[in-house]
Every structure is written in structure tokens, then in C-alpha cells.
Amino acid sequence: MDSVFLFFKNEEDKNNMDILKAKIKLGKFYFSKILENNSLTSSLKGKSMYMDPNMLICLHEKQKLFYDIKVDIWPLGILTYELLIGEFPFEEKNMNGLVNKIKDGIYKIPKNLNLSKEAVSFIKGILQKEPIKRFDINDVVNHDFLNKDVKDFTHEGFEEIGEVNEGEIILKI
Fold first, then answer.
1. Those residues with Cβ within 8 angstroms of residue 47's Cβ, 6 or more apart along the chain or in another chain
2. Cα–chain-centroid distance for residue 119?
3. Which of the four, 20, 106, 125, 143, has the lowest number of CB atoms within 10 Å?
4. Strand ranges inside 67-147, DSSP E
């Protein structure tokens, strides 16, 4: 996720930078490609920290991969994790380390952050290595994390989502 695009309905809102009235889109402007539903492409471009795991592994191993629009859901999960946790879920110093960490497929959410079950479920649904298991855009926009009133969020039942130990929730992609 390299760019945040703001679209305003009118010039007054734009001039005042009233982002509450803006339509916000996240994207990779300089690597953009329009894909229709059910279409495939094979170009491998983007920042490795945000890259779909299958794309990253294929790029690293110099293999060709065909993918669909779900590759753009993965960076939303990375960005959500980064905004809520304050770091990357698979941070490493080099490409080999990053690929190995993603292949291991384990990331953790510290329990002391007191995130809601809805937030953890949202992240887990997006950060799925296999596109078939990963949320699609309808799952994202209809998820409780984006639609439920924050006062109704729950802070128990994490065992349904991942392994829970004293200090963290361990999730597997």
C-alpha cells in the first residue's frame, strides 16, 4: 500500500481538506493494473513488505505466478496490522528472512494492546496465505470490525481465532 487517494464531492470540501466527507482509496499508483473480476495477470511488482505472500515467494524463487484481485486484499491486512499493532507482522531485515517468516506463516498480536475480537478476526481473515481462504472485498466491507459500533466489540473468545497464551494471540496464515 503506497498511496492514499482522497476524492471529494465538491471543491469546498477539497479546499478545506474535510476528509470526513472524502471517499478514501488505498492503492499502489505507480504499479497499478486494472483487473476485472475473475481475470488473471502475472506481473510481479510492489514493495515486498506489503506483497501478497505467493507473489513474494514466486518473485524470490524466480517462478511465474498467475493471480487475481485478491492480491490487493493482503496489503490491507498488513496496513491494518501496522496501524493497530505499530509494526509489521512479518518484519525482517532481508528478503530471505521475510520469505522464510511468511512461509512459516505465524504472526502474533500482543494481548496487552487489548484489541477486540472483531479486530483480530478482521486481520486474520485478510492475512491468509491462500487466496481461496482470504477475505474478498465483500467480506471486508461487511465485517463486524468495520460495521459494528465500537462499544459492542468483544474482548473474549480469542480461542476461536487463534492460539492464546499469556501475553499474545498467535495466528497462522
1. 2
2. 12
3. 20
4. 106-110
Extract the C-alpha cell encoding 128.
491468509
Task: Walk me through the domains of the chain, giving residue ranges and CATH numbers.
Answer: 1-32 (no CATH), 40-172 (1.10.510.10)
Q: Do 31 and 46 contact (CB within 8 A), yes or no?
A: yes
Phi, psi of 4 (to 5 degrees): -120, 120
pLDDT tens, per residue, the chain with 173 residues: 456 667 788 888 888 877 777 777 666 544 455 556 665 554 444 455 666 766 665 565 666 666 666 777 888 888 899 889 988 888 777 777 777 787 788 889 998 888 999 999 999 999 998 888 999 989 999 999 999 998 999 988 888 898 898 888 988 88
Residues paired with residue 27 on neighbouring β-strands, in sequence order: 3
Closest listed residue to residue 125, CA positions, set 117, 138, 135: 135
